[in-house]
């Protein structure tokens, strides 16, 4: 598997790259090739006196390359200019990446309002599964919040086609997963009872995971999807929340406050988003 690791060379990005356990988890699910990407904003001019952005970034990336290479990955670095989330998405698509990884300092009241943040924009535009690796906020030398990226997964589903696509990620995540909680949130706007009740549908999915040796439980909730998924995260404390990056509503695709973006902005731990299949 091929992964793109986006870094702004901050302490938060360094925590993601230099944590040995995180790297081991990525190797366990099949990642063997890493592409480090750092984006120089278009409004930063390389010729400004005393500023050697390309040189500084190149030296930092060379250090990161050594760390990742020593962990057993094939690694390549890319320095590009432009809008960060657009260039990261473009490179991931060009390379045919299987995963995009970005570090994030986590939730704050301000970040919930800053729609231009890279992680939140990536949640809206990614063409590959996106792993948002949560980093400690109030620390000068931060570390990742939860090292074992995939040990305990919280999978949230509305039973849409894209939620099913997110579930398919277990085909490789299972190599690093020991426990899973499957969550469905019923809302007041949901239609009447379906042919199969949510508990039955979740139980069927749980059976598939248990066949892979993953200890699984199910949880059906009622209310606002984002609020209830976050409540489930607080209760079960997964290492990563797995969710499709679009809901079943066409309108929801246009809303900045979509469920997936709210999870990225407000979750305590890591979040993995799986986008729709654009070839379908």
Describe it.
Pfam families: Usp. Residues 4-132, 150-275 form the UspA domain. With 280 residues, this protein is an alpha/beta fold. It folds into two domains: 2-134, Rossmann fold (3-Layer(aba) Sandwich); 152-274, 3-Layer(aba) Sandwich (Rossmann fold), CATH 3.40.50. Helices cover 35% and strands 22% of the residues. The chain has ten helices and ten strands. It has helices at 11-18, 20-28, 53-70, 84-95, 118-125, 161-167, 170-173, 198-210, 225-236, 259-266, and strands at 2-6, 33-40, 74-81, 99-104, 130-134, 152-156, 179-186, 215-222, 240-244, 270-274. It has a ten-stranded mixed β-sheet, with helices on both faces. Helix 4 (84-95) crosses helix 5 (118-125). The relative contact order is 0.15. Mean pLDDT is 83; it is low at 107-116 and 247-257.
């Amino acid at each position: 598997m091929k992964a793109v690791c986006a870094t702004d060379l901050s302490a938060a990005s360094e925590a993601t790259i230099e944590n040995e356990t995180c790297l081991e988890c990525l190797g366990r699910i099949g990642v063997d090739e890493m592409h480090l990407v750092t984006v120089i904003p278009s409004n930063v001019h390389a010729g400004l006196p005393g500023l050697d952005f390309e040189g500084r970034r190149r030296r930092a990336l060379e250090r990161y390359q050594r760390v990742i290479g020593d962990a057993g990955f094939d690694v390549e670095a890319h320095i590009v200019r432009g809008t960060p989330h657009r260039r990261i998405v473009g490179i991931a698509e060009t390379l045919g990446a299987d995963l995009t990884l970005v570090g994030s300092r986590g939730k704050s009241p301000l970040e919930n309002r800053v729609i231009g943040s890279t992680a939140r924009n990536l949640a809206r535009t990614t063409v590959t599964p996106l792993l948002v690796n949560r980093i400690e906020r109030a620390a000068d030398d931060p570390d990742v919040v939860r090292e074992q990226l995939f040990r305990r997964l919280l999978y949230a589903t509305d039973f849409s086609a894209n939620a099913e696509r997110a579930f398919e990620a277990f085909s490789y995540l299972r190599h690093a997963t020991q426990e899973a909680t499957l969550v469905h949130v019923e809302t007041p706007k949901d239609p009447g009872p379906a042919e199969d009740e949510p508990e039955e549908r979740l139980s069927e999915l749980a059976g598939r995971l248990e066949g892979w040796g993953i200890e699984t439980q199910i949880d059906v909730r009622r209310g606002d999807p984002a609020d209830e998924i976050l409540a489930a995260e607080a209760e079960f404390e997964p290492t990563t929340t797995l969710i499709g990056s679009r809901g079943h509503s066409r309108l929801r695709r246009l809303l900045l406050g979509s469920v997936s973006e709210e999870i990225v902005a407000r979750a305590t731990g890591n979040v993995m988003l799986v986008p729709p299949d654009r070839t379908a």
